[in-house]
Structures are given as structure tokens and as C-alpha cells.
Recover the amino acids of this structure.
């Protein structure tokens, strides 16, 4: 239904109206918190109240769509946003089972994380900014899931990216979060270029951004659009080769990691792919399956050796997102032609992964508090210094058991229901494709074995055994220094633990979600086989880690491969980042000596100030800074990782020399250029007028001559 | 040549001449009064272009208001005790060169642009110019009009705030 | 020369005089007088083109708003000049160079 005037709102279905109000309310919350948050003692209770209200509304919207059959959906309203070149761009709200489920998920988890944060962030001086950013994020995320066209989705897509950037860098005074936020932003921008290109192609080909009714028609443009969207999606959802930003993003506050970098924002890419998969060509589906399976396996391997409690979960998130992308790629596990299981896994994963992160947050928070009280100092995120925490936080331990069982895919838990669907879909895919395609389900099965293994390892290191903090210099009484149970933090955990069981998702049948009318169970033993694999993984972890973390001598290059995430960061550093920086510096050099030099030459003549011509200096500097070092300097051997050794020689001989030389050159010449900055405004004006005059004359000769 | 034409050219010469003398004058007070002449000349030229309301506004707002402020400024800042409200030049030659080059370039562009090749300006008197301006102000230009009123209020407050004696200065005075 | 050309040439002339004043005068008030000249030059163009296209009042409206803006600008600018004078005991632009690095 198209809205023409405001009075048309009266005719809109109530749930749709409520859904439209949710992001507006959240945005209002952001504005209020941004303006007056500091005076309201942070404004935490306001934020919690607001998101409690929106969670109720979101739940209502979700509930009312599930009362309807699919054929009466979607509820779709739209209105004209603006006109350009005779075509109108619309905004609208699209509510079907997928978007309403996402809405319920986002509002619900946002509320729980807010309650958790009340205690977590209570003593931070900048907490008003925290609450404001969270509201901004929630508003953008709701807008993203409700959008009825790709342009609107892109707008909110960028907004969630901004909120994520702000929250990763929440403690921007420290170096690590500041760098991590930039990395996340830049990597996402690179992937977003794909999204933008897809949008332009879509507009050029169809003259509309609406996704409804788009399906693959077998031409090249459709394939390219699909490819662009896929690139954008794998950037946001941290899939190979863009996944490097997510582990670093853990530098933000843990509830933020829980909400944004595990449960909601990172699944936006998966959501986009689910929305757009009818437009994807069969080749792209295969590509998706391979990317998903590969990422799932790589990330699962990387999670095995992490010592930081949050990084384990970060790699786990990447791995699970890989499962979802693979689930879309391999196509349906049933005949309905829908990618239900990827969507289903998205929903179940959001609850248990959010829960796992909140448990990590609780552990870190408690350890910090205990350290302060007992005057101990060690890395509160390092699992090697934990152990035996089940005695200090029994309820949290129980909740963790629920989440971990769900992640591992044990029966009676939500992960069992959804992961099996994806695995069976992968098997069908392999049967269809034959031959090499068995690699995909193979990788997925190995990844799910490793999943059970690494999550069991985490539990054993954190909760079982005896406390190893004393090895890190803590005193005897450290174990009694833990704070009392804080219900503001434990209650959300218990709710999430409940949501990680089968009850919400498949109340009738704990072993199979009845409404996903699947024919996948022609071999009823298959799900039990997957559960068996999970049990094997847990058992293996129990045996290997029964005496605590492995001693350091057990490490080798295989360990390094896993710990450093296949050296992806190092590879990017030497193959992309450094050459890029070198190129930038080279261009800066050209800019300075050729462009600025010319300007200064002209200025020098006109001003009669007798600036010496710069070009001869340029040659002199080049000689000193580039050629001499190459000839003279001794090569400094430096630490190399085994895989980057091949590029090391080239790197040291050429790239480093150029980079260092150019950097020095730019620095010194910058000081000279600085002298132009005399602080005398009239001279500035004179320079700019000169430039304008030159431009004017050039244009005149172009257009008249 | 008609009388109007002679007057028109006389205004052009007056304005340009006053401007030139103003630009090379060293005395600020002279320059301020020559600006007065330039503004009046421009107001006269507005009348020749059938913009009477604008001409009147120019005289009232510019000559009556703005120029008074300028002269106040001169008197408040020039070292009147020395009785030499003279100013010096900086960057005289490059400044003059740039200004002349700019002028020549602009003249060249005016000639080459093709604006002149179209219809001649009809120097006609529109009787209801003020009425037209009034209607435009309250219809098409209502939003800018209201914005300008807010701007003026802001400027009023801002200028008063800026020119008050600050705390530090008061302390200095007290010492 | 046609009337339009005279208008445009005079406008260019006044504009360049204004630029010259702004560029070469040490005294901030002189520079401000130059800015007034520049604004008037622009106004003259607006009005000339308004007259060229008979009945189009938009040029005059723009000029009118520029006059109002100029009044506002002068008020604020002189408040600033007075402030600067109180702080630096001079209104010479080139002596106020705290912007340099």
C-alpha cells in the first residue's frame, strides 16, 4: 500500500505501524541521550526503559506475523522519498516472516544487552556515549531489516557500520581499540564498494531498487549485481577474505561484541544474501557455498588455539556465519525453494552466541573486580589464568552450558535444529554436484567437530579444574575476592539460556522443527550422527585439556597457523597495506615536488621573494634519501613468519627502502612547505587568488582558444 | 544621446572614479567617505536598472546603517591622538598585479561569454517594482526572509556579546 | 558599449578594487571596506541581469538579501575588529599571525 499523505497512516495495519515506530523511537532515544545523556547520569535507565518498550513492540510485531500464513504476507507500505530525473525513489517497510523475526530478534537482544550493560558499564565516565551509540545502532539495525528496497537498506547498512565503528573504538584513548575500529571501518568500506556497484548496476538495469520480484534471468548484469551484493555481504558478515576485522573488533566493550559483532550486525550480510538469493546465479551459489564452508573451517581451526576468551568466540562467530553463508549457497534442504535453514541458524545462533559473549563479559568483569580488590594484575581475558570459576559463578556456568551445548549442536538445544538442516542441505548439494563438491559438506562436518572441540576447551579452561590465577601472581585470597552475583547481569543470561533450547523454535518436536516442511530426513540417522560428532569433539577436548592449558612446548608451526588465523593479517600487510602506503607516499612526493613546486615557482616569481627553485632540491633529496640508503644501509634481519618468508626478501630490499626513504623525504620537505604557512591571511588569499587566476586562464584557453 | 544616457554614464564614471580613489587613498576616513560615494553611485545605477526598491534599500541600509558602523569602527580603532589615520600597504606590487590580471581576465570573459550578444537591456521604468518585490518576499522568498530575520537577531546578540568587555580585560582594568 | 556591458565591466572593476584593498591594506578596516566593494560588485551583476530579463525579479531579491547580509556581516566584523584591537592593540592584519604553525 502506498502512502500519499499522513492521514493514510490511519489505514495501516497496527503491527506495521508499530514496526515503523520502533526505529523512530530508538533514534529519538539516541538524540535525547546525545544531547542530555551526560546530565542524566549517563541515561542508562532511560535507554533500558526505551528498549524494553521497543522489545515489547518488536515481540508483538513478530508474534502477529507468525499468526498469519505466508500467502497473506508481506505487509508492505511505502512512500515517495524523493524524485530524481522523473523517477521516484521510495522508502518503505516490508514485513514478512523473515524481517519480523529479525525485528523481534534485534529488539529483544538489544534489550537484554542493555540490561546487562547497566552493571557492566556502570562506572565508565563516558557511559552516556555508550548508551547513545547503542540506541543509534539499534535504530539503524531495525531500519535495515525493515527496509523494502536496497537503497534504503544500504543507508542503514552504512549507519550500522558507523555505530559499530564508534563502539569498537569506544575506548578510543587506548591505541588498540582506536586501530581496531579503523580496521573494521576500512575493510568494510572495501567490501561496500561491491554493494555500491551492485546498486548502480541494479538502477541502470531495472531503474528501481525494489528487491521484490527480482530473480535471476541468466544475463551477465544479474550475475554482476549478485557478485557485488555478495562482496558487500561477506564484508559485513566477516567471510573470507574480509574476515580479518572481526577478531580485532573485540577491542570494544564486551556487551557490544555480543550485540553487534555476534548477534545482529554481522548477520546483516547473511540477511541480505537471504533476501537477494533469487537474483544470485547458480555459479554464485556455488561460490557462496565454497566461501562459507572454507571460512567455517578456517575460523574453526583458528578458534582452537586462542587464549583470549573473546577471540575464541570471535572466530567461532566467523565460523558460524560461514555455516549460514554455506547454507544459502547450497540451496534449500527442502522443496519449498526457500533458504530457511540459513535464516533459522541465524536466529538460533544470535541467541546462544550473544549469551556466550555475555558470559565472557561477566567473567572479565568479575575478574577485573576481583583483581582490584585483591591487588592482583594479570590479563583478565586470558583463559590460561582462569579455571575453576564454576565455584564463583555457578549460575553463569549453568547458562554457559546451555549456550555451549547449543553451539556444539547437542540434541534438545536450538543449534541442533538449525545446524543439522544446513549440513543436510550441504549433503544434498554435494549429491547434486557430485565429485569435488563433497569437499563442502566435508569441510562443514570437520568444522562442526572442531566447534564442539573449541567450545569444550573454552569451558574446561574457564570453569573447570582449579584456579590458575595464582600462577600469574595473585594472592591466596584471590578466589574470595569475586563480587557477589549481580542480577542485572545474570537475568539476561538466564533468559538467553532458555532461548537456546528447543522450546521457542520448535515447541512441539524437540528434534525437528516441524514448520520447516523438510524432506531432508530420509535418513533419520543423519542428525544423530552429527550429534555424535559433536560429542566426540567434546570428549576429545576433555581428554586433551584435563590438566589445564597445554604447555608452551606443544606449539609449532601448526599452532602458529591456527593462532595467527592462517597469517591473513600478515599477508594483507605485506601484499596490500604496505605497497599501498608506499604508492601513497610516492604520490605525495609527486604532489609536493611537481605540483606544489610549480605553484611555488610561479608564486616565487610573482612575489619576488626569491624562493629557490624546488626541482634541484628534489633531485638532491632523492639522491640522499633513496639511492644512498639502498646502497649503504645494512639489512636488518627481523622476525618473520614462516609463510611470509617468501615475500620477506622483496619486502626488505625494495618496499621498506622505498617506504623509509620516501617517508623521511616527505617529512623533511613538509617542513619546508610549512614555511608557506606564514599565518598572514592576506598572503593566503593572494595564493588562492593566484590559483584561481591560473584556473580561469586555463579554462578560457580551453573554451575560447 | 538622451539626458538619461548622459546621466547613466555620469554615474558609471562617478562610481568607478570614487572607487579608484578610495582604493589608493591612504587615509581611512577619506576611504570611508569615498565608499559612501561609491554606494550612492551604485544606488543610482540600480534606478537605471529599474530596481527602485533596491536603490532605496541601498541608501537606507548601506549608506545609513553600514557606513555609520564603519566610521564608528574607524574612530574607535585609529589612533586618533596622533591625528594620522593613515595606513600602509603590504604586498603592494603582487596585490596590484593580481587585481589587474583578474580585471583583465574578467573583462575578456565578459566579452567572450556571449551574454552581450543577446537582447539589449531595456532601460524601462517599472512602476510597480516595490509591489513586485513585496509580493516576491512574502511568496517565493518567504523562507529566506524568515531566515534572514533570525540571522539578524543572532547578529544583534552576537555583536553585542563580542564587543562587550571581557572578564580578563576588566581584571586588567582593575589592576 | 551596451548598458549591460557597462554594468558588467563596472562590476568587474569594483570587484578588483575590492580584491586589491583586501590584499594590500594592513589595516583591517580598510580590508573590510574592500569586502563591501566586492559585495556591491556582485549586487550590480544581479541587478543588471534582472533588468536584462524583464520581469524576472529573482536577481533583485538576491541583491536585497545580500544587502541585509552585508549589514549583518559589518556588525559582526566590527565587533571582532574591536575585540582584536583590545587584545592586540592593533588592527593591522599582518601583525595578527597567530595562525601560523
Amino acid at each position: 500500500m502506498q502512502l500519499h499523505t499522513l492521514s493514510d497512516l490511519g489505514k495501516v495495519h497496527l503491527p506495521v505501524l508499530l514496526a515503523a515506530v520502533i526505529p523512530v523511537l530508538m533514534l529519538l532515544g539516541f538524540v535525547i541521550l546525545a544531547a542530555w545523556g551526560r546530565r542524566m547520569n549517563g541515561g542508562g535507565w532511560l535507554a533500558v526503559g526505551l528498549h524494553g518498550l521497543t522489545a515489547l513492540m518488536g515481540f508483538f510485531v513478530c508474534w502477529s506475523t507468525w499468526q498469519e500464513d505466508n500467502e497473506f504476507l508481506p505487509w508492505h507500505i511505502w512512500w515517495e522519498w524523493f524524485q530524481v530525473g522523473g523517477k521516484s525513489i521510495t522508502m518503505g517497510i516490508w514485513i514478512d516472516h523473515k524481517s519480523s523475526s529479525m525485528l523481534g530478534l534485534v529488539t529483544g537482544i538489544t534489550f537484554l544487552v542493555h540490561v546487562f550493560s547497566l552493571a557492566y558499564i556502570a562506572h565508565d565516565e563516558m557511559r552516556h556515549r555508550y548508551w547513545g551509540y547503542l540506541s543509534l545502532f539499534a535504530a539503524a539495525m531495525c531500519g535495515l531489516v525493515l527496509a523494502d528496497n536496497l537503497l534504503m537498506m544500504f543507508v542503514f547498512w552504512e549507519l550500522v557500520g558507523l555505530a559499530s565503528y564508534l563502539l569498537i573504538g569506544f575506548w578510543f584513548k587506548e591505541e588498540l581499540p582506536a586501530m581496531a575500529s579503523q580496521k573494521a571501518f576500512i575493510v568494510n568500506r572495501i567490501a561496500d564498494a561491491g554493494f555500491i556497484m551492485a546498486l548502480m548496476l541494479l538502477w541502470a538495469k531495472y531503474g528501481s531498487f525494489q528487491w521484490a520480484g527480482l530473480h535471476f534471468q541468466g544475463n551477465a548484469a544479474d550475475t554482476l549485481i549478485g557478485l557485488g551484493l555478495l562482496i558487500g555481504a561477506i564484508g559485513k558478515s566477516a567471510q573470507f577474505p574480509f574476515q580479518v576485522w572481526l577478531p580485532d573488533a573485540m577491542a570494544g566493550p564486551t556487551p557490544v561484541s555480543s550485540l553487534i559483532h555476534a548477534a545482529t550486525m554481522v548477520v546483516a550480510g547473511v540477511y541480505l544474501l537471504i533476501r537477494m538469493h533469487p537474483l544470485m546465479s547458480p555459479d554464485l551459489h556455488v561460490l557462496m557455498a565454497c566461501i562459507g564452508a572454507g571460512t567455517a573451517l578456517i575460523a574453526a581451526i583458528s578458534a582452537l588455539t586462542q587464549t583470549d576468551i573473546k577471540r575464541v568466540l570471535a572466530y567461532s562467530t566467523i565460523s558460524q556465519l560461514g555455516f549460514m553463508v554455506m547454507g544459502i549457497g547450497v540451496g534449500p534442504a527442502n522443496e519449498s525453494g526457500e533458504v530457511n535453514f540459513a535464516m533459522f541458524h541465524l536466529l538460533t545462533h544470535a541467541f546462544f552466541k550473544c549469551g556466550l559473549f555475555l558470559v565472557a563479559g561477566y567473567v572479565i568483569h568479575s575478574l577485573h573486580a576481583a583483581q582490584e580488590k585483591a591487588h592482583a594484575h594479570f590479563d583478565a581475558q586470558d583463559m590460561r589464568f582462569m579455571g575453576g570459576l564454576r565455584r564463583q559463578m555457578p549460575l553463569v556456568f549453568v547458562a554457559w552450558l546451555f549456550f555451549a551445548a547449543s553451539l556444539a549442536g547437542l540434541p534438545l538445544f536450538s543449534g541442533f535444529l538449525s545446524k543439522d538442516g544446513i549440513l543436510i542441505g550441504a549433503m544434498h548439494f554435494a549429491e547434486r554436484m557430485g565429485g569435488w563438491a563433497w569437499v563442502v559438506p566435508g569441510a562443514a562436518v570437520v568444522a562442526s567437530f572442531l566447534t564442539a572441540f573449541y567450545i569444550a576447551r573454552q569451558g574446561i579452561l574457564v570453569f573447570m579444574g582449579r584456579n590458575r590465577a595464582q600462577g600469574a601472581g595473585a594472592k591466596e585470597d584471590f578466589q574470595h575476592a569475586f563480587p557477589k552475583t549481580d542480577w542485572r547481569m545474570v537475568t539476561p543470561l538466564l533468559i538467553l539460556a532458555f532461548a537456546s533450547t528447543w522450546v521457542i523454535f520448535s515447541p512441539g518436536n524437540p528434534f525437528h522443527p516441524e514448520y520447516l516442511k523438510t524432506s531432508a530426513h530420509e535418513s533419520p540417522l543423519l542428525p544423530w550422527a552429527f550429534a555424535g560428532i559433536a560429542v566426540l569433539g567434546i570428549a576429545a577436548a576433555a581428554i586433551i585439556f584435563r590438566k589445564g592449558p597445554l604447555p608452551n612446548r606443544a606449539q609449532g608451526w601448526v599452532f602458529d597457523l591456527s593462532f595467527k588465523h592462517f597469517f591473513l593479517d600478515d599477508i594483507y600487510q605485506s601484499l596490500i597495506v604496505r605497497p599501498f602506503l608506499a604508492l601513497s607516499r610516492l604520490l605525495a612526493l609527486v604532489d609536493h615536488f611537481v605540483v606544489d613546486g610549480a605553484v611555488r615557482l610561479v608564486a616565487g616569481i610573482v612575489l619576488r621573494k626569491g624562493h629557490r627553485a624546488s626541482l634541484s632540491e628534489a633531485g638532491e633529496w632523492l639522491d640522499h634519501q633513496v639511492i644512498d640508503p639502498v646502497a649503504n644501509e645494512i639489512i636488518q634481519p627481523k622476525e618473520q613468519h614462516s609463510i611470509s618468508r617468501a615475500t620477506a626478501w622483496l619486502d626488505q630490499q625494495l618496499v621498506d627502502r622505498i617506504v623509509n626513504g620516501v617517508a623521511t623525504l616527505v617529512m623533511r620537505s613538509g617542513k619546508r612547505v610549512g614555511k608557506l604557512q606564514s599565518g598572514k591571511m592576506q598572503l593566503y588569499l593572494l595564493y588562492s587568488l593566484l590559483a584561481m587566476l591560473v584556473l580561469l586562464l586555463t579554462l578560457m584557453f580551453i573554451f575560447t582558444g | 544621446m538622451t539626458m538619461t544616457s548622459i546621466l547613466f554614464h555620469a554615474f558609471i564614471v562617478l562610481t568607478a572614479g570614487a572607487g579608484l580613489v578610495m582604493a589608493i587613498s591612504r587615509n581611512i576616513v577619506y576611504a570611508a567617505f569615498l565608499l559612501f560615494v561609491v554606494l550612492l553611485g551604485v544606488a543610482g545605477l540600480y534606478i537605471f536598472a529599474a530596481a527602485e526598491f533596491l536603490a532605496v534599500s541601498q541608501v537606507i541600509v548601506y549608506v545609513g546603517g553600514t557606513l555609520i558602523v564603519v566610521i564608528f569602527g574607524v574612530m574607535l580603532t585609529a589612533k586618533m591622538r596622533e591625528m594620522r589615520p593613515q595606513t600602509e600597504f603590504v604586498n603592494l606590487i603582487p596585490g596590484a598585479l593580481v587585481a589587474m590580471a583578474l580585471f583583465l581576465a574578467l573583462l575578456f570573459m565578459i566579452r567572450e561569454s556571449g551574454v552581450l550578444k543577446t537582447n539589449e537591456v531595456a532601460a524601462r521604468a517599472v512602476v510597480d517594482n516595490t509591489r513586485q518585490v513585496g509580493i516576491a518576499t512574502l511568496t517565493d522568498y518567504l523562507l529566506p526572509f524568515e531566515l534572514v530575520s533570525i540571522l539578524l537577531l543572532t547578529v544583534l546578540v552576537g555583536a553585542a556579546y563580542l564587543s562587550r568587555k571581557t572578564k580578563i580585560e576588566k581584571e586588567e582594568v582593575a589592576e | 558599449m551596451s548598458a549591460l556591458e557597462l554594468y558588467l565591466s563596472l562590476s568587474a572593476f569594483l570587484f578588483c578594487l575590492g580584491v586589491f584593498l583586501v590584499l594590500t591594506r594592513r589595516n583591517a578596516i580598510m580590508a573590510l571596506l574592500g569586502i563591501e566593494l566586492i559585495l556591491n560588485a556582485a549586487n550590480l551583476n544581479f541587478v543588471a541581469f534582472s533588468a536584462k530579463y524583464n520581469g524576472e525579479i529573482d536577481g533583485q531579491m538576491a541583491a536585497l538579501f545580500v544587502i541585509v547580509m552585508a549589514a549583518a556581516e559589518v556588525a559582526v566584523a566590527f565587533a571582532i575588529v574591536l575585540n582584536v584591537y583590545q587584545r592586540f592593540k592593533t588592527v593591522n592584519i599582518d601583525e595578527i599571525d597567530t595562525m601560523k604553525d
Notes: Chain A has a mean pLDDT of 83. Chain A is about 70% helix and 5% strand. The interface with chain B takes residues 606-608, 682-683, 686, 689-690, 693, 696-697, 700, 704 of chain A (CB under 8 Å). Residues 568-607 of chain A form the longest helix (40 residues).
